[in-house]
Amino acid sequence: MKNLLKMRKSIKYFIAALTLLITLPASADKKENLDDMSFAEIVNSVNLGKQAELIQKFQDKEAKNVLLKNKSFSAQNGCSVDAIRNHEIIVVTIPASKLFGPNATELLEQADNYLEPFKRYLKEPDMYRVVAVMHTDNTGSELYREELTIARAEAVAGWFEDAGVSTDYLFPYAMSDDIPLVPNDSFENREKNRRLEIYLVPGETMLNKAKQGRIAM
């Protein structure tokens, strides 16, 4: 398997609040290589402009008709499907325990059930920019937390490569314990903070299709 850290998939640290998803302006004019962008930059990398409302409706439909109907992403499994930035971006949150054993970096067999549904979003180049963000709790040393989330993010990206899916528009990030959902003050809360978030960000292909009236509603 490719060494995703040394090749095109540079897994980066970005210590910031998720409010950056709202406060940073989207820009379609940036010339930087997408792989070199920070998390906040990649989720704001396409300016939807006048097509924003149409794409919001398209994303709402995708979340409702596809992702929320998938039993793997049910609340009973500890998962959630949400929309952010005025419903332009879909976020699916999966507990790390559904993907990895305790302190492990090798994917469980059942992880297929949670990752398989996202292959559809990588089939058409730049229809989506799929951003996979691995988080953990504050247990262990800083180095351990960093290495754990890097290895797990790499494992997730490697799963898609091994599945024969193009990963040109898959962007993995390792966040360590920098962005907890809740305070790390109980077993239950630490479990909530150990998670994979997958952001389905509209790409240039979706934007161009929206301009041409070619995204189905």
SSE layout and pairings?
Layout lengths: L19 H4 L15 H5 L8 H16 L12 E5 L4 E7 L15 H5 L12 E8 L6 H21 L7 E5 L12 H7 L1 E8 L1 H8 L6
Parallel strand pairs: 3-4
Antiparallel strand pairs: 1-2, 2-5, 3-5
What features would you describe in this structure?
The chain has 217 residues and is an alpha+beta fold. It has one domain (52-211): 60s Ribosomal Protein L30, Chain: A, CATH 3.30.1330.60. Helix content is 30%, strand content 15%. It has seven helices and five strands; from the N terminus they run αααββαβαβαβα. It has helices at residues 20-23, 39-43, 52-67, 111-115, 142-162, 187-193, 204-211, and strands spanning 80-84, 89-95, 128-135, 170-174, 195-202. The chain has a five-stranded mixed beta sheet. A hairpin with a 4-residue loop joins β1 and β2 (89-95). The longest helix is centred in the last third of the chain and has 21 residues, at 142-162. It is globular.
List keywords for this structure.
five-stranded mixed sheet; alpha+beta; 217 residues; 60s Ribosomal Protein L30, Chain: A
The poorly predicted ranges are 1-31
Q: Which architecture does the CATH hierarchy give at level 2? A: 2-Layer Sandwich
Order of helices and strands: HHHEEHEHEHEH
Annotation field: number of helices:
7
Number of strands: 5
Indicate the multimeric state: single chain
Helix content: 25-40%
N-end to C-end Cα span: 38 Å
Count of discrete domains: 1
User: What is the mean pLDDT?
Assistant: 88
Return the CATH topology.
Answer: 60s Ribosomal Protein L30, Chain: A
- Side by side, the strands of the main sheet go 1-2-5-3-4
Strand content: 15-25%
User: Which class best fits the helix and strand makeup?
Assistant: alpha+beta
Specify the biggest β-sheet. Answer: 5 strands, mixed
CATH level-4 homologous superfamily: OmpA-like domain
- The CATH class is Alpha Beta
Q: Round the Cα radius of gyration to an integer and report it.
A: 17 Å
